[in-house]
């Protein structure tokens, strides 16, 4: 099975800042292209980098992809 992990999706990572620790939750550009996510998904800049935010309930989603999906329901 192929595991597709878009680690380096042409993101505008700010390399000027200090080296970041490994965050398990990272915003993925692929989320914006997901039809079931883009209806409500917003990208915000947080202290931890980009994060996903729900445009309807203004909730910041820092969960896994699966949780993003379930939030849609
Ligand atoms: Zn919401």
Which key features would you list for this structure?
single chain, about 70 residues, alpha+beta, three-stranded antiparallel β-sheet, 2 helices, 3 strands, globular, binds zinc ion
Verbal overview:
The model has no long low-confidence stretch (mean pLDDT 73). This protein has a domain of 43 residues. The longest helix is centred in the C-terminal third of the chain and has 7 residues. The termini are far apart. It is built from 2 helices and 3 strands. It is of the alpha+beta class and 73 residues long. Helix content is 16%, strand content 19%. Strands 1-2-3 form a 3-stranded antiparallel sheet, with no helix packed on it. The site of zinc ion (ZN) has 6 residues, from loops.
> Compounds present?
zinc ion
Secondary structure class reads: alpha+beta
The number of helices is 2
Question: Mean pLDDT across all residues, rounded?
Answer: 73
> Helical residue percent?
10-25%
Shape: globular
Low-confidence stretches: none
Instruction: List SSEs in N-to-C order.
Output: HEEEH
Strand content: 15-25%
Going across the biggest sheet, name each strand in turn: 1-2-3
Q: What's the N-to-C terminus distance?
A: 28 Å
Count of DSSP strands: 3
User: What's the story with the biggest beta sheet?
Assistant: 3 strands, antiparallel
Gyration radius, in Å: 13 Å
């Amino acid at each position: 099975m192929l595991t597709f992990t878009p680690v380096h999706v042409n993101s505008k990572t700010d390399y000027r800042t200090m080296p970041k620790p490994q965050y398990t939750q990272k915003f993925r550009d692929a989320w914006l292209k997901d039809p079931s996510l883009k209806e409500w998904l917003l990208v915000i800049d947080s202290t931890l980098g980009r994060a996903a935010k729900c445009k309807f309930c203004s909730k910041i989603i820092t969960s896994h992809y699966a949780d993003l999906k379930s939030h849609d329901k």
